[in-house]
Amino acid sequence: MKDIPQVVEASKVDLVFQTADGPVHALSDIDLEINKGDFISLIGPSGCGKTTLLRLIADLEKPTGGMLRVNGMSPEEARLNRDYGYVFQSPALYPWRTVEGNLKLPLEIMGVEKADQNERAREALEMVDLTGFEKKFPWQLSGGMQQRVSIARALTFHPDLMLMDEPFGALDEIVRDQLNEHFLRLWEQTHKTVVFVTHSIPEAAYLSTKIVVMSPRPGKINDIIESTLPEKRTLDIRETQEFLELSQRIRKGLRAGHSYD
């Protein structure tokens, strides 16, 4: 059987921030392998370094120790190669540009030809079920639709790797469930590699092929849980014994790495 390509490889990664009050040890001894097609959720308490780890992969922060590779190269090389799409916690859309205009902006900066910009924007909107909303402005859309535009913008790069920092965290539970189901269908179709930050145990259990459980600062990986759920899932799976057992293991991993006393 052919080996599955490795997209992210972290070995003994540390990150120490220098502040006016002294050094802050954000991440410690991170060992992690992410293979092509994995859907990885990073879950842990606030301040445990989930977003920081995502930012290291994206070359928005630099590790102070250890080795980190993205697609076999340094994070900086992967960034310059535009190997990933990044989805932030908030949509970060320009209100004076249409949906189509927001999607095209990074492509304009990259110097992509106009015809290619139009085609990429059309494809990306189709993937997030927003065909027909090209000429709308962000303020004319719901919060969930704005976040789908943000995902579409990341897809215009045609990245194989998607980095997502709690993209649904600010949405109400009903919309969040809808977007979880929609994005899971999108992942099933494209098999992109996804690294997804969340605080939600049900979200991590529902979406992921692997769940990386992190402990408080300095952030460490406390457990890596392989999902036993089938690839094709609907929200109904959350009522099954298998899903409840997976959620319970995630909860135990969080408790083991965190003192509530």
Report on the structure:
The chain is α/β, with parallel strands linked by helices and about 260 residues long. The protein has 8 helices and 9 strands. The strands form 2 sheets. A 6-stranded mixed β-sheet has the order 5-6-7-3-8-9, with helices on both faces. A 3-stranded antiparallel β-sheet has the order 2-1-4. The N and C termini lie far apart (about 50 Å). The mean pLDDT is about 90.
Shape verdict:
globular
Number of helices: 8
Question: What class would the helix/strand composition place it in?
Answer: alpha/beta
**Main sheet overview:** 6 strands, mixed
Question: Superfamily at the CATH H level of the largest domain?
Answer: P-loop containing nucleotide triphosphate hydrolases
What's the β-strand tally? Answer: 9
Work out the helicity level. 25-40%
The residue ranges in which pLDDT falls below 50 over 5 or more consecutive positions are: none
Here the CATH topology of the largest domain equals: Rossmann fold
Describe the secondary structure blueprint for this structure.
Elements: E1 6-19, E2 22-35, E3 39-43, H1 50-57, E4 65-70, H2 75-80, E5 84-87, H3 99-110, H4 114-127, H5 143-155, E6 161-165, H6 173-190, E7 193-198, H7 201-207, E8 210-215, E9 220-226, H8 241-256
Parallel strand pairs: 3-7, 3-8, 5-6, 6-7
Antiparallel strand pairs: 1-2, 1-4, 8-9
Helix pairs in contact: 3-4, 3-5, 4-5, 7-8
